[in-house]
Amino acid sequence: LRVAEAIVARQHALLEEGEHAAAPLTLKDIGADVGLHESTISRVTRRKYAVTPRGIMELKAFFRQSVDGVHTPDTIQRRIAELVASENPARPLSDQKISDILAREGIDVARRTIAKYRGELGIPGRSQRRKSS
Predict the structure, then answer these.
(1) Where are the beta strands (DSSP E) in 54-129?
(2) Helix H or strand E encompassing 49
(3) Cα–Cα 20 to 30 A to 92, which of 5, 20, 56, 127?
(4) Environment class of residue 63 by beta-carbon count within 10 Å: exposed (0-12), middle (13-18) or buried (19+)?
């Protein structure tokens, strides 16, 4: 119960606002909060579920890795999709340019990571997105 309470305390935004508000959270973080080793947290959360305003969720679903200590892959992928959706079709952004824009926003992500996330989102490369005017 203490573990579930600690998870909810850390991920209340996810419950209230949805997936886009999920914060990075590791087994180690919760272990530190409740005074247990991360392997114990892993065992305690395995095959356990919580009834939430968003439906029934496995406790493991609350854990999110961070790319840079602050941002989850989901938030970065969402931002990449926003940038690509708002780009000039005649001059699409390169992966490096997207990386540079994110860096100015305080999100340090390598160009290769941008390419990986873009691929996972099903967004084609710059040359395939280019439309002649």
Answers:
(1) 55-58
(2) strand 49-52
(3) 20
(4) buried
Which of 89, 85, 86 is CA-nearest to residue 129?
89
Q: Is the pTM of this model over 0.85?
A: no
24: number of CA atoms within 13 Å, CB side? 12
Nearest partner of 93 among 84, 106, 103, 82, judged by Cα: 84
Partners of 51 in the beta sheet?
56
For residue 42, the one-letter residue type is S
Closest of 30, 36, 37, 107 to residue 62, by C-alpha: 30
Of 95, 103, 91, the residue nearest 121 (C-alpha): 95
Q: Name the residue ranges covered by the structural domains of the chain.
A: 2-62, 73-129
Q: Which tens digit of pLDDT belongs to each residue from 7-63?
A: 989 988 888 887 777 788 889 999 999 999 999 999 999 999 988 888 888 888 888
Give the max Cα distance, the chain: 61
